Amino acid sequence: MSENVLGIQERKTDKELYSYQQGAISQIFEKFESAPDDYHLLYQLPTGGGKTVIFSEMVRQYLKHHDKKVLIMTHRIELSKQTSTMLTEFNVSNKIVHSTANLDDQDDYSCFVAMVETLNNRLNEDKLDISNVGLVIIDEAHYNSFTKLFKFFEKSFILGVTATPLSSNIKLPMKDNYDELIVGESIEALIENEFLAQAETYSYNVGLTSLVVGANGDYTVKSSEDLYTNFDMLSKLMQAYEERCKGKKTLIFNNGIKTSLFVYDTFKAAGYPIAHLDNTNTKKERKAILKWFKDTPHAILTSVSILTTGFDEPTVESIILNRATKSLTLYYQMIGRGSRILKNKSSFTVIDLGNNFHRFGPWGADLDWYRIFKSPNYYLDSLLNDEDLESNFRYEMPEDLRAEFENSKEVYFDISKTYIDAVRNGESSKVVLERSISQHARISIENSEDVYDAYELSKKLGDDIDYRIQRYTKCISKSTFNFVEWLRDDYRKKLRAYIRDNFDSVYEDINGHPPED
Questions:
Q1: pTM across the whole model
Q2: Model confidence over 335-380: pLDDT tens digits?
Q3: CB–CB of 373/181 below 8 Å?
Q4: What is the C-alpha separation between 58 and 10, in angstroms, rounded?
Q5: How far apart are alpha carbons 480 and 11 in whole angstroms?
Q6: 319 near 354, Cβ under 8 Å?
Q7: CA–CA separation, 350 vs 335, rounded Å?
Q8: 163, 187 in Cβ contact below 8 A?
Q9: Which long-range contacts (CB under 8 A, 24 or more apart) does 377-380 make?
Q10: Residue 342 contacts residue 314 (beta carbons within 8 Å)
Q11: Is 9 helix (H, G, I), strand (E, B) or coil?
């Protein structure tokens, strides 16, 4: 492991590629030589596997043996700059086509790097000569913004590269724009050969039925912020961090700037070193924040998707998904930010607060990328919806909270079974929550010396209460946001009232004697 611990990041400058990277280049060039000029090939390789290294070496070899030019497209300016730097390290002279670039010297270059929107403008203005471009490479090819440019390259070989060959728009499947998929090394193999770190995932069950799916097929920012800025979710986030990530350099991903700012305030108030970053920060601010994050031990950075691509900080030790997503690509991108290996880092922690693990499976699972590429709708239809996911959950108290209820042999209450029994006995569904409140009160009193202790203990049952309300509303098939919120609030009020009115009798029933004055 003496060389491998250095990772791809350091080996690339020596122009020495790993065997799987060399194999990928051979496969791609074999297709290039045998396929028609306008062939569209898609290559998949996990985040951290070195896609930029592979296509930089490809460009070097292509320009050496072909009298044509190369164009590389990216969707963000940061990726354009990183790609240009990598090409330079491979001794490929290149020019970035940015919004203010002077193209008078374009004849002096055989390789161009461009952001998709800028390129689209330059081509429509006829300011960039692409008549002799033989190879087009598209980074992060799952984004659909690239496809509108394909009409300009009808005689060019197009190579798309991505970690997840699943379109960001389900209405525009990748199989409609690419003729073939080549699958590279798997995450499992890269971990086994010590190229990537192992993800240790801890999933905390979260009720997501209040979330709304937008036109893009993912959860809306508004509904996500309504959920993830409430007190219970911020408390769950802090609890998860302190249980699993405390003292580790941590990235927190959120869906919405408001959520990220709430997270920032919560951690700041607790005395933790934290910074917030979103797409409204200036380049100067972004640079300063990322430098602080790199240089500060145990730093926490809360952000809004801006770091899912084009960001490489190997010292990240834990990832917190403080959001839910229906995008497999985003799920893999977020976790991949922690997968870079270091000499003293072979694993990293992942906290999932969006049921993403239950929806997509573990990061690095053995996915059939060929089938996903060919039949994306079949894969997407096989994913469980939120109600089905949550129907499989059973609330388990965290260990430290369970210790506060050590006098209780059982703290779980089966809402579904209680509901079925009530219906069979011809009872109102209201008795389900009444019996749940009675059981919550009993375990609170069972572990208390007086009514005030019982009040304080009952306040710690928030997650269990929310779980029971969620199960109850599913049973009665009524789950509007306002109704659920009202039930949660009403339950807490009734629990407190029950403890106040019944403390003495319950205490005596449990202990065989009344409470001492």
A1: 0.75
A2: 999 998 888 889 999 999 999 999 999 998 888 999 999 999 888 8
A3: yes
A4: 19
A5: 55
A6: no
A7: 7
A8: no
A9: 377/170, 377/173, 379/166, 380/170
A10: yes
A11: helix
Delimit the CATH 3.40.50.300 region(s) of the chain: 4-190, 197-364
Cα separations (Å) of 208 from 276, 441, 450?
25, 27, 36
> Cα(319)–Cα(245) distance, rounded to whole angstroms?
9
Say whether domain 197-364 belongs to CATH 3.40.50.300: yes
Q: What is the CATH number of domain 4-190?
A: 3.40.50.300
pLDDT-based confidence at 58, cuts 50/70/90?
very high
Query: How high is the pLDDT of residue 395?
Result: 78
Q: Is residue 6 over pLDDT 50?
A: no
Counting every residue written for the chain, the total comes to 517
CA angle in degrees (0–180, nearest 5) for 335-244-188: 35
- DSSP-assigned letter for residue 135: E
In angstroms, the Cα distances linking 418 to 55, 187, 205 are: 60, 44, 22
Please write down the HEC assignment for all residues of 208-274.
CCCCCECCCCCECHHHHHHHHCCHHHHHHHHHHHHHHCCCCCEEEEECCHHHHHHHHHHHHHCCCCE
Residue 125 class from Cβ within 10 Å (0-12 exposed, 13-18 middle, 19+ buried)? exposed
Q: Which amino acid is at 514?
A: P
Helix (H/G/I), strand (E/B), else coil: 75: coil
Nearest residue to 59 (alpha-carbon basis) of 159, 131, 149, 146 = 159
> How many angstroms separate the first and last alpha carbons of the chain?
68
Please name every residue paired with 320 in a beta bridge, in sequence order, or none if there are none.
252, 351
- Comparing 269 with 1, which gets the higher pLDDT? 269
- The percent of the chain in helix, strand and coil, each rounded to the nearest 5, is 50, 15, 35
Q: Look up residue 423 and give its two tokens.
A: 């219906």
Rounded Cα–Cα distance for residues 202 and 179 (Å): 38
Encoded tokens for 186: 């798997």
Rounded CA-CA distance 320/334 in Å is 9
**Strands 95-97 and 157-162, how do they pair?**
unpaired
Q: Per DSSP, which regions of 65-174 are E strands?
A: 69-74, 95-97, 111-115, 133-139, 157-162
Residues 6+ away with beta carbon under 8 Å from 149: 73, 116, 119, 120, 123
Backbone region of residue 381 per phi and psi (left: phi > 0; alpha: psi in -120 to 50; beta: other values): alpha
Cβ atoms within 10 Å of 490's Cβ, excluding its own: 13
Q: Which residue has the tokens 């350091």?
A: 10
Q: Which two three-digit tokens encode residue 175? A: 């199989």
379 vs 389: CA distance, rounded Å: 16
